[in-house]
UniProtKB/TrEMBL annotation:
<feature type="region of interest" description="Disordered">
    <location>
        <begin position="68"/>
        <end position="90"/>
    </location>
</feature>
<feature type="domain" description="Galactose-1-phosphate uridyl transferase C-terminal">
    <location>
        <begin position="258"/>
        <end position="370"/>
    </location>
</feature>
<feature type="region of interest" description="Disordered">
    <location>
        <begin position="112"/>
        <end position="133"/>
    </location>
</feature>
<keyword id="KW-0119">Carbohydrate metabolism</keyword>
<dbReference type="InterPro" id="IPR036265">
    <property type="entry name" value="HIT-like_sf"/>
</dbReference>
<dbReference type="InterPro" id="IPR005850">
    <property type="entry name" value="GalP_Utransf_C"/>
</dbReference>
<dbReference type="GO" id="GO:0008108">
    <property type="term" value="F:UDP-glucose:hexose-1-phosphate uridylyltransferase activity"/>
</dbReference>
<keyword id="KW-0548">Nucleotidyltransferase</keyword>
<keyword id="KW-0808">Transferase</keyword>
<keyword id="KW-0862">Zinc</keyword>
<keyword id="KW-0479">Metal-binding</keyword>
<dbReference type="Pfam" id="PF01087">
    <property type="entry name" value="GalP_UDP_transf"/>
</dbReference>
<dbReference type="GO" id="GO:0033499">
    <property type="term" value="P:galactose catabolic process via UDP-galactose, Leloir pathway"/>
</dbReference>
<comment type="similarity">
    <text>Belongs to the galactose-1-phosphate uridylyltransferase type 1 family.</text>
</comment>
<protein>
    <recommendedName>
        <fullName>Galactose-1-phosphate uridylyltransferase</fullName>
        <ecNumber>2.7.7.12</ecNumber>
    </recommendedName>
</protein>
<dbReference type="GO" id="GO:0008270">
    <property type="term" value="F:zinc ion binding"/>
</dbReference>
<feature type="domain" description="Galactose-1-phosphate uridyl transferase N-terminal">
    <location>
        <begin position="83"/>
        <end position="249"/>
    </location>
</feature>
Length: 429
């Protein structure tokens, strides 16, 4: 951290993050360090904290061991902490992180629960579960390093490639990435779709803040903010939250998109994602929402029984941190509307909809790869629910061959969204 910025009346120093006028006046970022050495950030939109009239609790009272402290091996000898490893699949070229430490993380829900309580909740003095991650008894939005990460940057760890069994078929490296958690709201019983647009605006700022800062870390090739929501997806904590993975490689899905984008540019001189957006706007039928800055549409070759892509209107936006203030507000409005309409998409017969399980995945340009110039920021939102009482399972064709078979058509998906509300969203008041 080297450059000093101002947010409200609070001063902070970050490497790449440039807050806009709204964030400077209405969001205060307060960093601290958890007791095991992980970074933690409060993002407050409450005026009392933004002004400095109130301050957050910075001390983590838990007696956690330093996460980088050396341990001991089976013979009782000192052993350095081991970073997660990743190996490259010679058949696909994909890097596969292997994070065995995640097997030891506590499970807080379901029949196999090993702990009670909610580690994402604000601290509750006197509560029997005191291993929560938030030092304060309240918060607005917080971001912190995952305690049980799939990837981790260990100080002094090398980036050299070695080989499994000494065979060059199987390269391996340390998985020198980073995993962070973003908690959207202190109310552990709320749903992301129920959050006010103002709170989602703070979440958007958190994505922008962390995208900028994580892109500055050595060895990071892709920053991936995402949200898994719903027990059916495997989420054990219903608390509204998301994650940010910073990969030391380009993930397979983005790699495929970059290959297609680059080939399209070489063939036509155009930008594939820009031209897809223009084509969807021209066709019109699959566009489900738009405002001043964003367009949401069901892609013409949608895989999932509910799938929506969201793209910025302005050209040249490669990552979330490049959005201006209006684009961030308009995104919060559209994301809120998308979540609420997603919950209403499947009718159970009572007109109340359902808490939709979904994944919201931010596809950003890679950090360093030269192909980034021909890419474009986009959100890919999807659910594997195909009816109020049915789930799409990825069976032999999808899982075995990656050959997707859709259970519906994009036009039907878009048609259902058209029943749920107008395409043109009202301007923010």
């Amino acid at each position: 951290m080297s450059r000093k910025e101002e947010a409200g009346s609070g001063a902070y120093e970050f490497e790449r993050y440039h807050p806009g006028a709204y964030a400077r006046a209405h969001i205060r970022i307060t960093p601290t360090i958890l007791s095991d050495g992980r970074q933690f950030f409060y993002l407050d939109d409450d005026p009392a904290y933004v002004s400095g009239a109130r301050t957050r609790e910075l001390k983590d009272p838990r007696p956690l061991a330093d996460r980088f402290a050396p341990g001991v091996d089976a013979d009782g000898n000192p052993a350095p902490v081991q970073a997660p490893q990743m190996r490259r699949d010679p058949l696909t070229g994909d890097w596969i992180p292997m994070a065995t430490a995640r097997m030891n993380r506590p499970i807080t829900a379901g029949p196999g629960a090993t702990a009670s309580g909610n580690p994402l909740a604000a601290r509750k003095p006197g509560d029997p579960y005191q291993d929560g991650e938030v030092p304060d008894t309240d918060y607005d939005v917080v971001v912190f390093e995952n305690r049980f990460p799939s990837m981790m940057q260990v100080p002094g760890a090398g980036t050299a490639t070695s080989y499994v069994d000494g065979n060059p078929l199987w390269p391996r490296r340390e998985a020198n990435g980073r995993c962070e958690v973003v908690c959207f709201d202190p109310d552990e019983s709320s749903l992301p779709a129920e959050l006010p647009v103002r709170r989602l605006r703070t979440v958007v700022e958190a994505w922008a803040f962390r995208t900028a800062e994580l892109s500055a870390l050595d060895g990071i090739e892709q920053v991936f903010p995402f949200e898994n929501h719903g027990q059916e997806i495997g989420v054990s904590l219903a608390h509204p939250h998301g994650q940010i993975y910073s990969y030391p490689f380009i993930a397979p899905r983005l790699e495929a998109e970059l290959r297609q984008s680059e080939a399209y540019h070489e063939r036509t001189g155009g930008n594939l994602l820009k031209d897809i957006l223009a084509a969807e706007l021209e066709a019109g039928e699959r566009v489900i929402m738009r405002n001043h800055s964003w367009v949401a549409y069901v892609p013409a070759a949608a895989r999932w029984p509910l799938e929506v892509h969201v793209a910025p209107v302005r050209d040249g936006v490669l990552s979330i941190d490049q959005l201006d203030d209006q684009e961030r507000w308009d995104l919060a409005q559209m994301y809120s509307t998308l979540l609420r309409r997603g919950n209403a998409f499947f009718d159970k017969g009572d007109g109340r909809g359902m808490d939709l399980p979904y994944i919201a995945a931010w596809h950003q340009a890679p950090v360093r790869d030269a192909r980034r110039v021909n890419y474009r920021l986009n959100l890919q939102f999807f659910s594997f629910r195909r009816a109020a009482n049915k789930i799409k399972y990825l069976a032999g064709s999808e899982s075995g061959m990656g050959a997707w078979i859709s259970d519906t058509t994009p036009e039907r998906i878009a048609g259902r969204f058209h029943e749920l509300g107008p395409v043109d969203l009202a301007d923010r008041g």
